[in-house]
Amino acid sequence: MSDKIKVGDYLIVQRQKYMKLQKFNNLNTTVNLGKDQIELKLAENHPYHTTFHLVPKLERGKRQFTLDALSTPSEIRNLKELLIKESGSDNRNITDDRQSQGLTTEEILKLREECESSSEVIGKLVENSKSFATKTEYSQEKYLKRKEKKYFEYITIRRPSIRVLCDIYWRLDPEKVLGVRFDTLSQIVSYSGVCSVGNYLLYESGTNGLLPAAMLNSIGKETGAKLVHLHPGNVAQKQALMAMDFPAEQLGRCVSVNIYSVIRHYYQEKEQTNGSEAVVEEVKEAVKTEEAPEIVDKDETTNGETKKRKLEDDTENGKTGGDGEPNAKVVKLEKDKQMWEIENETAAGLMKEKFDSLVIVAKEHPYSILKALLPFVKPSRPVVIFSTSREILAECYVDMKTEAAVTYLRLTSNWTRQLQVLPNRTHPDVTMSGNSGYLLTGYTIG
Predict the structure, then answer these.
(1) How many CB atoms lie within 10 A of CB 425?
(2) What is the pLDDT of residues 368-385, one digit of tens each?
(3) What are the pLDDT digits (tens) for 112-143?
(4) Structural domain boundaries in the chain
């Protein structure tokens, strides 16, 4: 993991409080912040957390910028000290008639092209405002922050972290991470007991890789712990996992496999085919949704068809053993095993050893998934189930109580209130999320 920005990295581009995740694919990569298009090529080889000045390109009518690294962040000027010279006692005589600004829209656009910095533009706006001097100091600060947000010409490039990624995904669309907010994510990791020792089992059905990234981050690098990441699709979502840029050694201890395929593989190795079919079908019914494609088991399609075709060809050509069976050397597939087969074998091996905790974050009803995966968890180990529906977890609570496979069951929810804490004006945020789903936690019984 390099301390400098390089091509291929995922970057967090921050302008004031706004943050965006962007992959630095090549030197021609650009990032769009509102209407502004910013070229990233000059950021290469600069340290992370460098603040850059946005330099406009000489193309009229287009808001395109290149980057110029600042020698020190102190180059960003304090608008409050520069522009607030006198203030009014209250705002009762100020009328919002949209006539207080003396500059027209065309003149403001011309200012943006002529001025070298946003501070100059905002200074001109303040000079031509008829009501700025009569506003209270608090109102003046709000006005400057609003204008600074619009004309701010600095960005900071940061390295992705679990906290920042979770905040970005949540702000864009909570459904993309199944409604998992950062405080809930921290509780999931805490309840599951993920650490640098042991093997851990995770099932998630679409969080952009946030859950496996958070658990692998807690496992740490150069440790002996391993994570089996089960998912319902053909390919796991791994954007957050890739964005964290874990070392290859650490990333290699996270095995992502299809839940149906690995369960069937595990039971077939134990020669319990009938039992495996029943378990797989039950899980398929539980996780089948309209959005998810029908999963075709690769053991049947790839190996089954290949072996069948090979057997037919060999039988026609007379290549059989003494008992009428195909010769072992002929039946053996000449090509190497595919990656998904190797991952299935690795995951099945860990399932035999059993796991130190089980985490389920699913948009489907989790009970059938829980029943299928609970036998692979050691006694007295934590079980954590997340859902956006309290009623679904209440049903699981009752069923688990009845079966007596898990004890110390607790159904909880998070409700976080964010506060703005400033002198003489501390209050809750006006817009905030009320609920971030529900957690059902407990411990397995031996």
Answers:
(1) 8
(2) 999 999 999 999 999 999
(3) 767 766 777 778 888 778 777 778 877 888 88
(4) 4-74, 78-91+100-151, 162-261+338-444
Mean pLDDT, rounded, of the chain: 81
Which of 167, 165, 132 has the alpha carbon at shortest distance from 147?
132
Higher-confidence position of 204 and 93: 204
Token duo for residue 393:
């977890």
* CB 128 within 8 Å of CB 102: yes
The secondary structure of residue 131, as a DSSP letter, is: S
User: Residue 66 corresponds to which tokens in the numbers above?
Assistant: 């290149």
β-strand partners of 13 = 20, 157
CA distance between the termini of the chain: 41
Give me the residue label for tokens 């699709």: 233
- Enter the tokens of residue 140: 């003046």
Among 363, 396, 231, residue whose Cα is nearest residue 290: 363
Could you say which architecture CATH assigns to the domain 162-261+338-444? 3-Layer(aba) Sandwich (3.40)
Question: Distance between CA atoms of 351 and 179, rounded to whole angstroms?
Answer: 29
Q: How far from chain centre, in Å, is Cα 108? A: 39
Positive or negative: CA dihedral 54, 57, 58, 61: negative
Alpha carbons 264 and 278: distance in angstroms, whole number? 10
Provide the whole-model pTM: 0.77
